[in-house]
TrEMBL record:
Domain Phosphodiester glycosidase, chain residue ranges per copy: 183-362
Pfam families found in the cross-reference section: NAGPA (PF09992)
GO molecular function, one term: hydrolase activity, acting on glycosyl bonds
InterPro entries (alphabetical): NAGPA (IPR018711)
Protein name: Phosphodiester glycosidase family protein
Origin: domain of life: Bacteria
Record keywords: Glycosidase, Hydrolase
């Protein structure tokens, strides 16, 4: 309730008894007669004086005077409250303005940082911007290969997910098929796989919707796990126990080899992966300091090592683009980038490969 209205109502309740007494005194014409024997002699004069018109008039005047003082006091209090309410509203407006300014100032470093990393990638060829995410597509033209970069800012936990091929363990479908089937805006191939019994299974530890698809497998050799946690942060590396990985609160993720970058520093590339093959189509995932994600997809004509990029060249690109941590995903004929519902790259198989895991992005 408005403070002024509340005060007026309080004052009205306070003076109502006095108004009732005054009304009764003014309107009453009856008197009560008592015998002289009922009072001592000296009291009769006092009672008579009290019943006189002069006494009634004096009482009414006093009541009216009190009411006048109460009304003046109420007006003064009302004016004071009105000023306090005005001051309160002005203070609130000032605080809101300060908060808004502070929030804008806090965002400035992030905006400057984003502008800097975007400038390193060049001018976006296409952008998807919604309440869930902002995804920007860039073209890469290097001396020995061509490719694509997709920088993604996840605004909500609904912006990105990982899907199994046809939503089942051992199932497989193309990234474009997964994008279309689940209504995604973009998609990238995820972890490695192994074939068996006519089915295609994700390699090693795989998590979908916070659940292990086929149990936990400790990291071995050059294998690593990479995924997203509940805070939309990239989680990656080698995990020796399920408890260690559980502590990261991962929502989804897949496994492959090898780790390329840690805290902006190149990681040693195992000899096997330097030569088998030397060049190939590649898919890489990385993150920035502000938790934006960077996906690099490089084309190649075949998988015999004569075209595409080396893993060392992918490391150079990650550093050049300002990435923090970088991980090599499945490559070769698996490398696929779908943006705005369309296939962007040129898979080396001549057609898209059916895969068991896909990273998907939703408007």
């Amino acid at each position: 309730m408005n403070p002024v209205k509340q005060l007026n109502r309080m004052m009205l309740l306070a003076v109502t008894p006095f108004l009732g007494i005054l009304f009764w005194l003014l309107m009453s014409s009856s008197t009560i007669e008592l015998s002289e024997a009922a009072f001592p002699e000296e009291s009769v004069g006092a009672a008579a004086q009290a019943e006189s018109p002069e006494g009634e008039s004096s009482t009414a005047e006093k009541l009216l005077a009190s009411l006048g003082e109460a009304e003046a006091s109420a007006k003064q209090t009302s004016a004071s409250l009105k000023k306090q309410v005005e001051l309160y509203n002005k203070t609130n407006a000032s605080i809101a303005s300060i908060v808004k300014t502070a929030a804008a100032q806090a965002e400035r470093p992030l905006i400057i940082y984003d502008n800097n990393v975007t400038a390193k990638l060049g001018k976006p060829a296409a952008t998807i911007n919604s309440s869930n995410l902002r995804a920007q597509l860039f073209y890469i033209n290097a001396q020995n290969f061509s490719g694509y970069a997709m920088k993604v800012k996840l605004k909500t936990d609904k912006a990105m997910d990982m899907a199994l091929g046809k939503d089942k363990f051992g199932g497989a479908e193309t990234t474009l098929s997964a994008v279309q089937r689940l209504g995604a805006a973009a998609g990238v191939n995820a972890g490695g796989f192994a074939d068996g019994g006519g089915k295609r299974y994700p390699l090693s530890t795989t998590i979908v919707d916070g659940e292990y698809v086929n149990g936990f497998e400790a990291s071995y050799a050059d294998l690593f796990f990479v995924g997203l946690n509940e805070d939309n942060e990239l989680v990656g590396g080698k995990f020796t126990s399920k408890e260690e990985l559980d502590a990261e609160h991962v929502r989804f993720g897949a496994s492959f080899v090898p780790v390329l970058l840690k805290n902006g520093v190149k990681q040693p590339i195992p000899v096997k992966w330097q030569t088998s093959p030397a060049r190939a189509p590649r898919t890489v995932v990385a993150n920035y300091k502000d938790d934006q994600l960077l996906f690099l997809v490089v084309d190649g004509y075949d998988e015999n090592g004569s075209s595409g990029a080396t893993l060392e060249e992918m490391q150079i690109l990650l550093q050049r683009y300002g990435a923090v941590d970088g991980y090599n995903l499945d490559g070769g004929g698996s490398s696929t980038l779908v943006f705005n519902g369309k296939l962007i790259n040129k898979p080396s198989d001549g057609q898209m490969r059916a895969l068991p895991t896909h990273f998907l992005f939703f408007r």
